[in-house]
Amino acid sequence: MNTHDVRWRQRFDQFDKSFALLESAMTIEKMTIIERAGLIQFFEMAFEQSWKLLKDYQEAEGFTITSPRQAIKQAYQSGIIADGHAWINALEDRNLTTHTYNEQTANIVEQKIRNAYFPLLKSLHTVFRDKIGQQP
């Protein structure tokens, strides 16, 4: 097992933990401001781990990845993810929420997380959980 192969497995463990936090927050239907901020923070953490997982996995496959956008584009081209545009939108919203807090933006991003971004992360989680299960 080479270094890149080990790295993506370790990254999956980190993604798995951050995804579990996001998944738990998703069960709260009517959120307070604090809960919404927590949901957005958990999304930011899970998203950060997701693109790094994609990067590490693809590097193990022989690709050179230098940015989140490139990791997403290559993952789409390789068939790891199905909706490249939605992933790019998630990246842009992650970047937006990381640097500012605005209540109106937070409400919009919460709905995007619930309706679009969480399903993307859940699908990725399933893909890599299956890859880990297939490995010796």
Automatic annotation (TrEMBL):
The keyword Transferase is annotated on this UniProt entry: yes
Record InterPro entries: HepT
Taxonomic path: Bacteria, Pseudomonadati, Thermodesulfobacteriota, Desulfovibrionia, Desulfovibrionales
Matches recorded under SUPFAM superfamilies: Nucleotidyltransferase substrate binding subunit/domain
Keywords of this entry: Transferase
UniProt organism field: Desulfomicrobium apsheronum
The protein's name: Nucleotidyltransferase substrate binding protein, HI0074 family
NCBIfam families the record matches: HI0074
Signal sequence residues: none
Gene Ontology molecular function: transferase activity
